[in-house]
User: What shape does this take?
Amino acid sequence: MTRHVVAPVSEFPPGTRRCVVLEGRRIALFNVGGRYFGLLDRCPHQGGPLSEGVLTGLVEAGAPGDYSFSRPGEILRCPWHGWEFDLATGKSRFDPRRHRTRAFRVSAEPGEELRAETVPVRVEEDYVVVET
Amino acid sequence: MTVLPPGAIDCDLHPAPPSVSALMPYLEPHWADAAAHRGLHELETIAWPPNAPLSCRPDWRDGDARPGSDPARLISDAVDGFGTRYAILNCLYGAPMLYSEDMAAGFARALNDWLKAEWLDRDPRLRASITVPPHAPGLAAEEIERAAEDRRFVQVLLPVMGETPPGRRINWPVYAAAERAGLPVAFHAGSAYRHPPTPVGWPSYLAEDYAAQATAFQAALTSLIAEGVFQKFPDLTVVFAESGVAWLPAHLWRLAKYWRGLRMEVPWVDRSPEEIVRERVRFTIQPFDAPEEPDAVARLLEHLGSDDMLLFATDYPHWQFDGMGALPEGLPADLVRRIAVDNPLSTYPRLREGKP
Amino acid sequence: MTVEVLDRPSGETPAEATLRIADCDIHPSPKSLEREIHPFLERRWQRHLERYGARPRQPFLNGPAYPKGQPDAARRDAYPPAGGRPGSDLAFMRAQHLDPNNVGFGVLNPLKSGQGLQNLDFADAYCRAINDWQIAFWTREEPRLKASIVIPYEDAAASVREIERCAGEEDYVQVFMLNRTAEPMGQRRYWPIYDAAAAAGLPLAVHAFGFGGAPITGSGWPSYYIEDMTGHAQSSQAVLTSMIFEGVFDRLPGLRMVLIESGFAWLPALCWRLDRVWMRMRDELHRCKRRPSEIVREQVFLTTQPMEEPNRPRQLVECIDWIGWDRLLFATDYPHWDFDQPDRVLPSWVDAEKRRAFFTDNALRVYGRQMP
Ligand code: FES
Assistant: This one.
């Protein structure tokens, strides 16, 4: 496991997203209301850029016409053919077992604890860290 | 030639629709009176002109008699001829085409009673489908309940093209009644002609109308799935009769592809359309619309992806095949057994009851 | 540790296609009606559009009766950074699609035009404007792109005039219709159009969508967009059936038809069925002289998108084997949401010769062009 410091928390506010390239892979990062998520930026279907997808919620129905809407902001729809992915797990909604994209653990860590890493950090800041 | 195993079940045969005068004794008095005094014409659909080549195989014709009008002939040609244990009669009558809901229901009731007396009572191997007024779902449900008391009625019969796409909620009372009675719902090729039979308007030819039946079944399947009929009625089996079969894999590839991207529009569709169809929809095998080479048939069957979906049928007296070749060439024997015996038995619970 | 922080998400896709490809379905839009379309539309029709709207045979003034899955039915990454609708900015189309996907020959198929409008005079004027616009704003600027002659097909006489007006300009590569017409396309009211297309040596392209007015299923109007989209394949089957059975291909043995954006996997089963029906009812089909599958093998082509997606890709390849590798013209449908990405649509084991036919050669042959 490698930990990558990608940005100070102050520069990655809630409601924003960005793309990073780590170890040659593009990763799409999202801050949804203070929670961080990371997905490989390549849809397992035809390779659409997930970082350009829309964040939505989960529409479900136990029976025809019986709509529910949950988990707003936690479902990513691919910008191309609209496959839905769970931001937290990378699993597709329609077939979570067979179709998924890689999810990465993303967290905010105090600069204090990152001092051992090889990038320069300031102790008074928190940083967004991606594990690959 | 592919040989049928003993005990085969023929899931689609067509007794000729009765003439108005033959139906008279079975009509309620006001309908009998209307039929007589309004000079009602025969309720025969433009889809099956008796003299059209497709309407009857040449060696099954009987002079000028309407194809399928003689029970003795149907029994000897088809039931004895193929050695079938049960034969399911789908009478393609014009009652569902009448615009009046009451009149359609009245003539459907009479037809079902006529079928019992004139056909089912003649031979213990005969079974039949219940004709209903599809555009009057409440009345249709009542008729299903009434007719289903006779256990020789094994399914409900609807034309694949009605007034609304079959999945629409307005049609649900029909499915609820069928499910309650433990009967599959069969959609058969045909239209009530409320709309042009093609999605691009009225065609010029009967041949075009018949070709369009396959596309109508595609749209019907989409509708049943998209509207959630299979979720709403978990015990309902749907049969597509005379639908053609070869179109199915390609249609499901397309439908499943769109479902993956548009699931949120029909969120009750909680698994792939392919899975739903394999579990819940059955197809009679004539016409199969297969290619001629056995190798292509084998591939097509592999594309279908299930041995449970096909039901043996002759489509008597329609001219789909010659001689005894009701099944495509080159099917393995165990698949033939499933198509001819096992699949029909699991589709039609009432056929498992033995003597009614 | 490599850390690279990008300022904005970027929409570029990897350029893996080494083959120079033809894309037979690209949808351009005007950046602005005033600036790009009005110059080609008489003042009277500009005013008409402002006051009355386009009025196709459907309920809404500004959008489809089946709301799309995403805005403008577009890829979400296809909005030009400089603003405007997807498909309206040539520079961005080059950067996002033509260059990275190595498109050497692209056919423009404008969907918003006079086609399917209730007012036939306006339909005619609007189609003419869209034709002139394609040349002025697109093909003159970008030699890789070719134009379609959009015609007000419910008015055959006006359509013929428009085909004749445009046919001399060599940037037009086809006559363009939508598949949901008022009556099945083989019917004789449309024949003058096919005569004119054949006389001009142009293929007849029939694209999904349109507003014929008939319900899009034989049982009436379905409820959902997914049914509308799935239904294009049924409409194309009905169109092809009508063209064959009405004898259009027998009258015009030189006519080539290209069916666009309805997929293709339905074709083998349709041909098997049509052959059987034709044999049974040949006396009724007196205008149709040849076996339907033979007509298809000689005169009909299909663009690939949206490619059907079986769980086992091999099955799709088997299906193409049935159709023939010389019949399919690759298309992306850029910038729309059901876009097909060229390097992802065929399994890697399909050989180079087939790939070349599928991605390039078939299209160049049908359109009689070379890579520019
Ligand atoms: S590329 Fe993502 S859904 Fe197709």
Remarks:
- The radius of gyration of chain B is 19 Å.
- Chain B has a mean pLDDT of 96.
- Residues A 43, 45-48, 78, 80-81, 83 surround FE2/S2 (inorganic) cluster (CB under 6 Å).
- Chain B has one domain: 9-351.
